[in-house]
From TrEMBL:
Pfam families the record matches: Clr5 (PF14420)
Region (Disordered): 130-162
InterPro entries registered for this protein in UniProt: Clr5_dom
Biased composition (Basic and acidic residues): 130-141
Protein name: Clr5 domain-containing protein
Listed Acidic residues bias regions: 142-152
Domain Clr5: 31-82
Domain of life where this protein originates: Eukaryota
Organism: Trichocladium antarcticum
Residue ranges that the Swiss-Prot or TrEMBL entry lists as coiled coil: none
């Protein structure tokens, strides 16, 4: 190998090993190159809730896998792993729904579960304040924005009493589905 510091290494290639003094790094060049690393990337990005900027060096250190940020973003979108963050249109629909339900019954509280995760009401309130500052909506008025369309994988309803609602298992980073009391609609 010439004066390069990189050796193309793929975990499935038997007998592949870097030469002494060289760093073992695999750089994907085609979509199939990503598949052996899919579970690891999904684990770090979704299960461990790591940011992409933290996943990239972890993959390089642990798996000797190096790709650009753009390549990662393309793959994450292709694998439908880009569900971690709530889009503006999703927030707009949640606010629209909350306001409609509040107009029907001013005492009714609304909680949302998006893609299997409980949406923190503080996050919705923070988005709403930002949108009001930007002039995208007005306080207390109906949301007529075209982006406030129904959202796939969104469940909403009135939350149960606080003690039944707090069924979060921090050790496994998940909510306990065995609770008797779920949302009422």
């Amino acid at each position: 190998m010439s004066g390069s510091d990189y050796y193309m290494y793929h975990p499935q290639e038997a007998g592949s090993a870097p030469l002494q003094g060289q760093t073992a790094v695999f750089r994907p060049s085609k979509p199939a190159d990503w598949e052996p690393y899919r579970d690891a990337i999904a684990h770090y990005y979704i299960t461990m809730n790591m940011k992409l900027k933290d996943v990239m060096p972890e993959m390089e250190t642990t798996y000797f896998f190096k790709a650009t940020e753009k390549q990662y973003k393309t793959q994450i979108k292709k694998w439908n792993l880009d569900t971690k963050y709530i889009k503006s249109s999703e927030y707009m629909f949640m606010i629209k729904t909350m306001r409609e339900r509040k107009a029907q019954d001013s005492t009714k509280e609304t909680r949302f579960i998006l893609r299997g995760r409980v949406v923190d009401p503080k996050d919705i309130a923070r988005f709403e304040k930002r949108a009001q500052r930007k002039g995208q909506m007005k306080e207390g008025e109906a949301v007529d924005a075209p982006e406030a369309e129904p959202v796939e994988d969104l469940v909403y309803g009135t939350p149960p009493p606080d003690e039944a609602y707090q069924t979060y298992d921090a050790e496994h980073d998940e909510y306990d589905d065995s609770a008797e009391c779920m949302y009422s609609y």
